Amino acid sequence: MQTIQANGYSIYFNENCYTFLSETLYKEAYSKIFIVVDSETANYCMPDFLANLATEIPIEIIEFEAGEVYKNIETCTHIWQALTELGADRKSIIINVGGGVVTDLGGFVASTYKRGIDFINVPTTLLAMVDASVGGKNGVDLGNLKNQVGVIQNPIAVLIDTHYLETLPQSQMRSGLAEMLKHGLIQDRAYWTKFGDLSSLDTDDLNELIHQSVIIKNNVVTQDPTEKGLRKALNFGHTLGHAIESYFLENENKETLLHGEAIAIGMILESYLSLEKELLTENEYQEIKSVIADIYPAVPFTEKDIENCIDLLIHDKKNEFGKVKFALLNGIGAVKIDEEIENDLIYKAFDDYKN
Question: What pLDDT shows up at residue 319?
Fold first, then answer.
């Protein structure tokens, strides 16, 4: 697959990843390589990654526990301390190998250690490949609030080796698929249509869909790297989706939702809001709801659940002057940003989802 040029860095695919990596490590003569992984990546992905890492530069591996609950400042502090004790200097490089938690957190650690050192992202989940590793957003959660602390800082490269997807359970593949569905809904109707029948897709089809999804996100980010306008389109499904994800994360009586599972619910809810604002037709809304519902099982919500999720909206990082702002669909393949929605309409969206 062809290399994609982003803002100041490149996104390499499959066999091109390791050619770039070997050449760059040799050319830049880094003092040390620090590989940041979580416990899942360490077990399933590190053997293959290390087998492809051709270098004589000293390597240190820093591991933390897997899971969104560890995407916090405490984990960063642990890694910053490990880097210091292991002699990391400004000529060191961090390679983040893992899913979105690893690339988000590892990028934040690298961007802030000694005021910033080079880092490379090697996403190993579908979600990270098509979303978390592209666009330079790095950060951590604050309590149960998603991505409250962070920076926008680009890696020197993103290396996407789809071979790592073979290590994923189906739930993780579904989670990543949500962002691909979103990319079609916000910018490319023809791309969205390809997800109407997933049963006929083979490995080559998936590779092409991943490549195309990265192109869509990269096109948006390249035009608006600091999220002043167009990039807000990528928030479709995420305003309510993040609130749902946060609520289920903090509530011990709820089974934690994967990011994509929460975003899938958010996309249905926010498609309903688009319908109510007369931005979507009834047929378009039913099409969206049907495709997503076929992939993701319905999640039950009590009235108290809905109330708590809505209460969390005020903490969404996209809000301005205390007002909740949504990116809504303006037909399939287009978005209208900065739409204000009253709570009564959000309750209606949840009622429609439950029915």
Answer: 58
For residue 310, what is the domain's CATH number?
1.20.1090.10
* Domain extent at residue 341: 170-354
- For residue 118, CA distances in Å to 55, 107, 147, 218, 240 come to 17, 9, 21, 20, 34
96 with 133, same domain: the answer is yes
C-alpha span between 352 and 268 (Å, rounded) = 9
Check whether residue 127 and residue 202 sit in a common domain.
no
* Structure confidence by residue, pLDDT tens digits, 110-168: 999 999 999 999 999 999 999 977 899 999 999 988 889 999 999 999 999 999 999 99
226 plus 139 within the same structural domain? no
In sequence order, what E strands does the chain have? 4-5, 10-13, 33-38, 59-64, 93-98, 118-123, 137-142, 145-152, 157-160, 325-329, 335-340
Q: Is there a contact between 334 and 191 (Cβ–Cβ < 8 Å)?
A: no
Please state the pTM of the whole predicted model: 0.91
* SS3 of residue 243 by DSSP: helix
User: Is 70 exceeded by the pLDDT of residue 318?
Assistant: no
